[in-house]
Protein backbone atom coordinates (compact mmCIF):
# COMPACT_ATOMS: atom_id res chain seq x y z
CA UNK A 1 0.00 0.00 0.00
CA UNK A 2 1.40 3.40 -0.97
CA UNK A 3 0.25 6.75 0.38
CA UNK A 4 -1.07 9.24 -2.16
CA UNK A 5 -0.28 12.83 -1.07
CA UNK A 6 -2.06 15.55 -3.05
CA UNK A 7 -3.18 19.16 -2.61
CA UNK A 8 -6.69 20.26 -1.65
CA UNK A 9 -7.63 23.71 -2.90
CA UNK A 10 -11.08 24.12 -1.38
CA UNK A 11 -13.11 23.25 1.67
CA UNK A 12 -13.78 24.75 5.10
CA UNK A 13 -10.85 24.86 7.49
CA UNK A 14 -12.83 25.48 10.68
CA UNK A 15 -15.60 23.12 11.75
CA UNK A 16 -17.80 23.53 14.83
CA UNK A 17 -17.42 20.68 17.31
CA UNK A 18 -19.36 19.22 20.21
CA UNK A 19 -16.20 18.43 22.14
CA UNK A 20 -16.03 19.66 25.72
CA UNK A 21 -13.96 22.87 26.01
CA UNK A 22 -13.51 23.18 22.22
CA UNK A 23 -15.66 25.27 19.90
CA UNK A 24 -13.93 24.56 16.59
CA UNK A 25 -11.64 22.05 14.93
CA UNK A 26 -8.96 23.17 12.44
CA UNK A 27 -8.80 20.83 9.44
CA UNK A 28 -5.54 21.40 7.55
CA UNK A 29 -5.59 17.95 5.90
CA UNK A 30 -8.17 15.68 4.27
CA UNK A 31 -7.76 11.94 4.43
CA UNK A 32 -5.75 9.55 6.54
CA UNK A 33 -2.73 7.32 6.25
CA UNK A 34 -3.88 4.76 8.84
CA UNK A 35 -7.30 3.56 7.64
CA UNK A 36 -8.56 2.20 10.95
CA UNK A 37 -11.42 -0.25 10.45
CA UNK A 38 -13.56 1.37 13.19
CA UNK A 39 -13.33 4.91 11.73
CA UNK A 40 -16.57 6.67 10.69
CA UNK A 41 -14.94 9.19 8.32
CA UNK A 42 -14.59 6.96 5.20
CA UNK A 43 -18.36 7.22 4.74
CA UNK A 44 -18.10 10.97 4.09
CA UNK A 45 -14.71 11.43 2.40
CA UNK A 46 -13.86 9.55 -0.78
CA UNK A 47 -11.04 9.41 -3.31
CA UNK A 48 -11.58 8.09 -6.82
CA UNK A 49 -8.24 6.28 -6.99
CA UNK A 50 -7.38 5.18 -3.44
CA UNK A 51 -9.00 3.45 -0.47
CA UNK A 52 -9.44 5.20 2.87
CA UNK A 53 -6.07 5.14 4.64
CA UNK A 54 -4.13 5.47 1.37
CA UNK A 55 -4.48 9.21 0.68
CA UNK A 56 -3.89 12.56 2.34
CA UNK A 57 -4.73 15.95 0.82
CA UNK A 58 -2.83 18.95 2.17
CA UNK A 59 -4.91 22.13 2.32
CA UNK A 60 -2.39 24.64 1.02
CA UNK A 61 -4.97 27.45 1.01
CA UNK A 62 -4.88 27.60 4.83
CA UNK A 63 -2.70 30.73 4.94
CA UNK A 64 -5.14 32.73 2.79
CA UNK A 65 -8.47 31.28 3.92
CA UNK A 66 -8.02 30.88 7.69
CA UNK A 67 -7.99 34.64 8.49
CA UNK A 68 -11.25 35.05 6.53
CA UNK A 69 -12.93 32.19 8.36
CA UNK A 70 -11.75 33.54 11.73
CA UNK A 71 -13.22 36.95 10.92
CA UNK A 72 -16.63 35.35 10.31
CA UNK A 73 -16.48 33.91 13.85
What layout of secondary structure does this protein have?
Blueprint: E1 4-8, E2 14-16, E3 24-26, E4 29-32, E5 55-59, H1 62-72
Parallel strand pairs: 1-5
Antiparallel strand pairs: 2-3, 4-5
Q: What would your notes on this structure say?
A:
It is a single chain. The chain is built from one helix and five strands, in the order βββββα. It has 73 residues and is α+β, with helices and mostly antiparallel strands. The strands form two sheets. The chain has a three-stranded mixed β-sheet, with no helix packed on it. A two-stranded antiparallel sheet has the order 2-3. A hairpin with a 7-residue loop joins strand 2 and strand 3 (24-26).
Features:
single chain, 73 residues, alpha+beta, 3-stranded mixed beta sheet, two-stranded antiparallel ribbon, 1 helix, 27% strand
Flag low-confidence runs: none
**How many beta-strand runs?**
5
The number of distinct helices, counting runs of at least 4 residues, comes to 1
Main sheet makeup: 3 strands, mixed
- The helix/strand class is alpha+beta
Name the beta content range: 25-35%
Query: Mind telling me the C-alpha Rg?
Result: 14 Å
Strand order of the largest sheet: 1-5-4
Mean pLDDT over the residues? 87
Amino acid sequence: MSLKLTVATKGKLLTKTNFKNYDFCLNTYVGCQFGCTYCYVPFSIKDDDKQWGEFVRVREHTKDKLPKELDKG
